[in-house]
Amino acid sequence: MRRRFQSFASQEAEEEESIDVTPMLDVVFIMLIFFIVTASFVKESGLEVNRPDANTANQQDQASILVAIGPDGDIWIDQRKVEPGSVRANIERLHAQNPQGSVVIQADEAAATRHLVSVMDSAREAGVNNVSIAAQEP
């Protein structure tokens, strides 16, 4: 009889020593999902651009389409080089995904003005009225 009692007592002791980590893992996964959903991702145009200085520069919050123009006239949208003839189609596609967003053009200081005007015209022809040019505050 004593042995039976000792065996039950030892089994209970073994069960009490182990910790169930399942609820902790559930909480960790829920927190991970929360942080992934609420994270804001920074979009980059795919080209490092030396932007000109401007005293009247202000922050643009709803920039969903970033277009970069390199010093030699290369046009980059979503980290890939785009031909000048297909800029309008790319902006139309991206604008359809986020109609409230705007177009921000990051033109290099050494880029020709004709490339900047060409991209601005393409954005307006694509139906985007909110077109901005990126600049640095001095």
Automatic annotation (TrEMBL):
It is found in: Cell membrane. Keywords: Cell membrane, Membrane, Protein transport, Transmembrane, Transmembrane helix, Transport. It comes from the Bacteria. GO terms for molecular function: transmembrane transporter activity. It is a single-pass membrane protein; Single-pass type II membrane protein. GO terms for cellular component: plasma membrane. One of its GO terms (biological process) is protein transport. PANTHER family: BIOPOLYMER TRANSPORT PROTEIN EXBD2, EXBD MEMBRANE COMPONENT OF PMF-DRIVEN MACROMOLECULE IMPORT SYSTEM. This is Biopolymer transporter ExbD. It comes from Halovibrio salipaludis. The lineage of its organism: Bacteria, Pseudomonadati, Pseudomonadota, Gammaproteobacteria, Oceanospirillales.
